[in-house]
Design a protein that fits this description.
two-stranded parallel ribbon, alpha+beta, Thiol Ester Dehydrase, Chain A
Length: 162
């Protein structure tokens, strides 16, 4: 399992974050997606397809072994973001607003290492203190040219009144 106890949020001012639009914000540490993590996720989501949970049977597929669920890889975005994607100073709370685009590009083999890379594509203040952030996210698989997933991730922060 992933130990998040050492991960800390990075804080920045809204003005400083505005200056970062169009730039890479950061890259997370690597995470191993091992078979026990895949099995745990299968139990949580109810997807026990053999390509995820049966190493012997999955060995006979083009994957050559079990692979992580795409949604498992997607679920790691929050972990990747913590400590990399800055929080705006004065944030009361924030929410995951969704995705404009999401593609599972390549499978992650059991035992594979992945990490997230974040680019701040756009920042909007629709209402005073309501900040919508659009991040281009790529989840890399160590040792491969193709990413596990690419996404346009939208989050929203609600700031304390000035």
């Amino acid at each position: 399992m992933i130990d998040a106890s050492t991960k800390k949020h990075v804080f920045t001012s809204l003005d400083a974050l505005r200056q970062r639009v169009g730039t890479q914000i950061g890259v997370s540490d690597w995470v191993v997606i091992d078979q026990p993590m895949i099995d745990t996720f299968a139990n949580l989501c109810g997807d026990h397809q053999f390509i995820h949970v049966d190493p012997e049977r999955a060995a006979g597929t083009p994957f050559g072994g079990t692979i992580a669920h795409g949604f498992l890889t997607l679920s790691l975005l929050t972990w990747f973001a913590t400590g990399v994607r800055p929080r705006i100073e004065g944030t009361k709370h924030s929410v995951n607003y969704g995705f404009d685009r999401l593609r599972f590009v390549a499978p992650v083999p059991a035992g594979g290492r992945v990490r997230g890379s974040f680019t701040l594509d756009r920042l909007e203040e629709r209402n005073p203190g309501e900040i919508t952030q659009h991040y281009g996210v790529t989840v890399e698989i160590e040792g491969t040219d193709r990413p596990a997933l690419v996404a346009d991730w939208i989050t929203r922060a609600y700031l304390e009144a000035a």
